[in-house]
Specification:
CATH architecture: 3-Layer(aba) Sandwich
Radius of gyration: 16 Å
Structural class: alpha/beta
Strand content: 25-35%
CATH class: Alpha Beta
Mean pLDDT: 91
Strand order of the largest sheet: 3-2-4-5-6
Number of strands: 8
Order of helices and strands: EHEHEEHEEEE
Length: about 180
């Protein structure tokens, strides 16, 4: 699989170090609060597992399966998820975890849905990667692991056609 990469952007040790920093900030911000973490699947699965093991707080974890890329290298602009699958968040603070902030369609749609449908005490978001680009939807993440250029990346949960998620690094996929 490494041979399918044009280059590696982030090594395992770089990712681990940044997760330590993110976890410390999130822990400080949510100390003494009732927190629910909602992971956006499938991309954030590895990120979620590694980040949450570093946060020594009692918290609830839930997941939401979302689709927007449909096996392409850019967002379709259409975000599909089951709003009925949103957890009960009354009297809780919500932290959304996603793998990447790209067009903004996914994060904006989920934030709008949870604010309207389940009304948590607060909503913040954390992304492993944020592409530096103009977004189709004007939204930013509250916690960001790394800023990257506008290129298609895989590994550490991010995929292309459901492949490469299990790479321990983040890299740019070689163009066919």
């Amino acid at each position: 699989m490494h041979s399918d990469l044009d280059r590696i952007l982030l090594r395992e040790d770089e990712i681990a170090s940044r997760l330590d920093t993110l976890a410390a900030k999130i822990t400080a911000d949510y100390e003494g609060k009732d927190l629910t973490v909602l992971a956006i699947l499938n991309g954030s699965l590895i990120f979620m597992a590694d980040l949450l093991r570093r946060i020594p707080l009692p918290l609830q974890i839930d997941c939401l399966r979302v689709r927007s890329y449909y096996d392409k290298m850019e967002s379709s602009g259409q975000v599909d998820f089951d709003r009925a699958a949103l957890p009960n968040l009354r009297d809780r603070h919500l932290l959304l975890l996603d793998d990447i902030l790209d067009s903004g369609h996914t994060l904006a749609a989920i934030v709008e849905a949870v604010r309207h449908d389940v009304r948590p005490l607060s909503v913040k978001s954390c992304v492993l990667l944020r592409k530096i680009k103009t977004r189709a939807r004007p939204i930013e993440a509250d916690y960001v692991g790394f800023d990257i250029g506008d290129e298609f990346v895989v590994g550490y949960g991010l995929d292309y056609q459901e492949r490469y998620r299990n790479l321990p690094v983040i890299g740019v996929l070689r163009q066919p």
